[in-house]
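Protein Record: Sequence and Backbone Structure Tokens
======================================================
Tokens: labelled as protein backbone structure tokens, with as many entries as the chain has residues.
Task: work out the structure tokens from the sequence, keeping to the layout shown below.
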Amino acid sequence: MRIKDIKAITMERLVRQYDMPHIAHDVVLVETLRALPELTTAYRLSLCMFMGVCTDGVVSLTVNGKKRVISRNNVMLVTDESVVDNINYSPDFDGIGFFVSYKMLQEILKDIQNMSDLFLLTHNHPMFEVTDSELDTLQTYQQQILRNIKTPHHKYSLEVVRLLILTMIFEVREAFERVVQCRETEDKQSRAERIFVQYIQLVEKNYKKQRQVQWYAAQMDLSPKYLCEAISAVSRRSPNEWIDKFVTTEIRNQLRHTNKRISEIATELNFPTQSFFGKYFKDNVGVSPSDYRNGLEM
């Protein structure tokens, strides 16, 4: 099944369907992970990220085709466009978490150096363990976020929540780096993984103007064939699919969160014509740009 045919989990859908604390469609707090449904069909995250921490029991699930089993003190990061299904909980399972919009992530991370590396690396290592002390810290921040969400008349609530989420991300990054460094002392990062990180960083900086795999291969002094083999081996996506992911995420974000005309977005992203832009978007997302702007999505 193509990713565009998989039903989307959006911030709007989470707010509409589930009675969870939220603020401005930018943060949806999950006070207990047991409140999330057990999914028997696949869903993909759309313009949002999920971070959860297991505090008791066990949950198994499939993320981007790989089965994961999460237990106490495990953190799970699920990024935009990830596909999740086959969620099953043990009777004593519990945890905390939140969804944050791609728009808010862009805002809070725009001036932070190298923070995008965390999300690149978690594509292959979406689950890692924290200490009891780190778990207590994350729970404390979660309660502070909840307190601010439940006091909507506080005029600085959204700003405080942004800072708390940024702080949580820093805490998670520190824990993640400790775990990854331990892994790397036992098993050095493969050449393919290094190529993957370098490639994604290049795409992140150049996708608005460069959408040819050959161009990226040349910047990395690799043959297009070898680049394709390395990226596919590490991420189960082709280099072209990663380029399309960055481009369509940017388009979706601009359609939903700006008042720019569709023709302006097409020009900004260097599409030759608006009709070509529309065809590209529909081929990758499943609906036309105007329909997507009007809230239509799988």
Summary: The chain has a mean pLDDT of 85. Residues 196 and 231 are 5 Å apart (CA to CA).
